[in-house]
């Protein structure tokens, strides 16, 4: 199985391509959504990598894929400017565990 990055950021796509990961550069949100739908059920892909910004644009589709429990695994990475949502980890723990920290 291989990994695939789908991003609207050319630097992220190029950088991960240089490290050996296939990449699809998307010009706009519609192309991003189309590529995600195309590759989310591909049996040859083990991991789909999205930047945080791209994840937020197609959140509904990504969450539905994650909840299905099937491959490929969808992973979100920070963009070139770092983590945009500073409370992401705290909110994630609250939602998954159900306790307030």
Automatic annotation (TrEMBL):
InterPro entries attached to this UniProt entry: ATPase_V1-cplx_f_g_su, ATPase_V1_fsu_sf
Coiled coil regions, renumbered to chain: none
Keyword Hydrolase recorded: yes
EC number: 3.6.3.14
Any one GO molecular-function label of the UniProt entry: hydrolase activity
One Pfam family this sequence matches: ATP-synt_F
Keyword list, A-Z: Hydrolase, Ion transport, Transport
Family that this chain belongs to: Belongs to the V-ATPase F subunit family.
Protein name (database record): ATP synthase, subunit F
Species assigned in the record: Peptoniphilus duerdenii ATCC BAA-1640
